[in-house]
C-alpha cells in the first residue's frame, strides 16, 4: 500500500511594479517549470504593473519573438496579513483561503527585491526564499551596498551619489562638480541607485551626454549614482546556503564576454540580442577562482544575505602592484532565473542542476 504524502504548496510570486516586471515573469516561468510536480503544488501569483495581485491565468511567461511577457489578468487575491491565515484570500469571493507553505518571490527591482515584499511576508508569517528585509533593501540600493562592502574591506570603484549643497538627493546634473568629473574621468556609468537589469543606465563617454543620462536614470529612481569605469573582465559568482546551515557554498565563476562593437552589458545585450558570449565556468587560474569565491562569500555575509545571491565583479590589474584587483560591482539577492541567466548556469556547471537548485532554495526557506 502506497501512502501519499502532502505536497508542499509553493506560491511563486512574479511581475510587480518595477521596470523589471517582464524579466521577473520570465524568471518565474523557469522556476515553476523546475519545481517537481510530484513534490510541490505551485500557486502562480502574478503582480500587475499597477500592483494588483492575481492568480495567474496560465499565459506564457517567456520572451517570444522579442515580445516581453506581462501580468495582465487573473483572479484577484490578497495576502492574508494575520499569521494564523498563512495564505491567500480571493477578493470578492466567499471561498476558502488558499493555504501556502512557502513563498518564492521571483521579483526583481523595486517593490519586490528591495525588502518591501519581504516585510509583507514577515508580517504574514510566511517563510520565503531569499534574503530578509535589511539585506534585500541594502543590496538593492547601490549606495548602501558600496558602504557596507567598503566597511568589510571589499574593494569598490570610485563613485558619486548626486546630492545638492545641503546633502539632499538631487537629479540636477550640476551637482557633479568639475572636481568630481576630473576624478571620475570618462567613461562613467550613470545609474538609478535602486534598479537592476541595466534599466535606466547610460554609459557616458562625453560630458555633453551627462544631462540626458541623468534624466534617463531619474525616470527610474530619485537617487542617481555616477560610477567611474572599472577596467577588467566581467566575472560573476553564485552563493547558495547549505542545507544544514554553516558557511554558504560558492559556485564556479562565469565570465561575460562582449563581442566586437558592444560597449557594455546593457538590457538588450542581456535579454534581447545575441551580442555576448559566456564562459561557464570562467577561464581563470585556480588562484583567481578561489579569490572570486572567497570574496563572494564575504560579500554575502557582509550584506547579511540569506538563501542565495549573485555577486558581480570586475577582475582587473592593480596599476601600482600589477597584482589582480577584484572589484565588486553589485550583490543581487534575487538574481535572474531565466533560461539564459548566469546564476542557474553557474550552479549547473558546479554540479547543481536547475531542479535541484530550486529544491534547495525552497528547503532552505522552510528550514528558516
Characterization of this structure:
- The protein is α+β, with helices and mostly antiparallel strands and 368 residues long.
- 27% of the residues lie in helices and 24% in strands.
- It has helices spanning 21-34, 116-124, 133-140, 142-151, 178-184, 210-218, 267-271, 286-302, 342-349, 354-367, and strands spanning 8-15, 40-47, 53-56, 74-79, 87-90, 98-99, 102-105, 159-161, 188-192, 202-204, 224-228, 233-240, 249-250, 254-258, 276-279, 308-317, 324-332.
- It has a 7-stranded mixed beta sheet. Strands 12, 13, 14, 15, 16 and 17 form a 6-stranded antiparallel beta sheet that branches.
- The relative contact order is 0.14.
- The mean pLDDT is 91.
| Beta strand % | 15-25%
Number of helices: 10
For the largest sheet, list the strands in their spatial order: 6-5-4-3-2-1-7
Q: CATH H level of the largest domain: which superfamily?
A: ATP-grasp fold, B domain
N-to-C span: 33 Å
Classified by CATH, the class of the largest domain is: Alpha Beta
Features:
368 residues, alpha+beta, Rossmann fold, D-amino Acid Aminotransferase, Chain A, domain 1, Dna Ligase, domain 1, 3 domains, 7-stranded mixed β-sheet, 6-stranded antiparallel β-sheet, 27% helix
Amino acid at each position: 500500500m502506497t501512502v501519499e504524502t502532502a505536497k508542499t504548496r509553493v506560491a511563486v510570486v512574479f511581475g510587480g511594479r518595477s521596470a523589471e516586471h517582464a524579466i521577473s515573469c520570465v524568471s518565474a516561468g523557469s522556476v515553476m517549470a523546475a519545481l517537481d510536480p510530484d513534490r510541490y503544488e505551485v500557486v502562480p501569483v502574478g503582480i500587475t504593473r499597477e500592483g494588483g495581485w492575481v492568480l495567474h491565468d496560465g499565459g506564457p511567461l517567456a520572451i517570444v519573438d522579442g515580445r516581453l511577457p506581462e501580468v495582465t489578468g487573473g483572479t484577484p487575491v490578497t495576502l492574508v496579513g494575520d499569521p494564523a491565515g498563512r495564505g491567500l484570500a480571493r477578493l470578492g469571493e466567499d471561498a476558502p483561503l488558499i493555504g501556502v507553505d512557502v513563498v518564492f518571490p521571483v521579483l526583481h527591482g523595486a517593490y519586490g527585491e528591495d525588502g518591501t515584499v519581504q516585510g509583507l511576508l514577515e508580517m504574514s508569517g510566511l517563510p520565503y526564499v531569499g534574503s530578509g528585509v535589511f539585506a534585500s533593501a541594502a543590496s538593492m540600493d547601490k549606495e548602501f551596498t558600496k558602504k557596507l562592502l567598503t566597511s568589510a574591506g571589499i574593494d569598490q570603484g570610485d563613485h558619486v551619489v548626486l546630492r545638492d549643497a545641503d546633502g539632499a538627493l538631487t537629479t540636477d546634473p550640476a551637482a557633479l562638480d568639475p572636481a568630481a568629473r576630473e576624478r571620475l574621468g570618462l567613461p562613467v556609468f550613470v545609474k538609478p541607485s535602486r534598479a537592476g537589469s541595466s534599466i535606466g543606465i547610460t554609459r557616458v563617454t562625453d560630458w555633453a551626454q551627462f544631462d540626458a543620462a541623468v534624466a534617463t536614470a531619474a525616470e527610474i529612481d530619485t537617487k542617481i549614482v555616477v560610477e567611474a569605469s572599472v577596467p577588467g573582465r566581467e566575472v560573476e559568482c553564485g552563493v547558495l546556503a547549505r542545507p544544514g546551515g554553516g558557511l554558504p557554498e560558492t559556485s564556479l565563476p562565469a565570465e561575460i564576454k562582449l563581442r566586437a562593437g558592444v560597449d557594455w552589458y546593457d538590457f538588450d545585450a542581456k535579454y534581447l540580442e545575441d551580442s555576448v558570449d559566456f564562459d561557464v565556468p570562467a577561464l581563470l587560474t585556480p588562484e583567481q577562482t578561489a579569490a572570486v569565491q572567497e570574496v563572494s562569500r564575504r560579500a554575502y555575509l557582509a550584506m547579511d544575505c540569506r538563501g542565495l545571491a549573485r555577486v558581480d565583479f570586475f577582475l582587473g590589474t592593480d596599476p601600482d602592484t600589477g597584482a589582480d584587483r577584484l572589484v565588486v560591482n553589485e550583490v543581487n539577492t534575487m538574481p535572474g532565473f531565466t533560461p539564459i541567466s548566469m546564476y542557474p548556469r553557474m550552479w549547473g556547471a558546479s554540479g547543481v542542476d536547475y531542479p535541484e537548485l530550486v529544491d534547495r532554495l525552497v528547503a532552505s526557506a522552510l528550514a528558516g
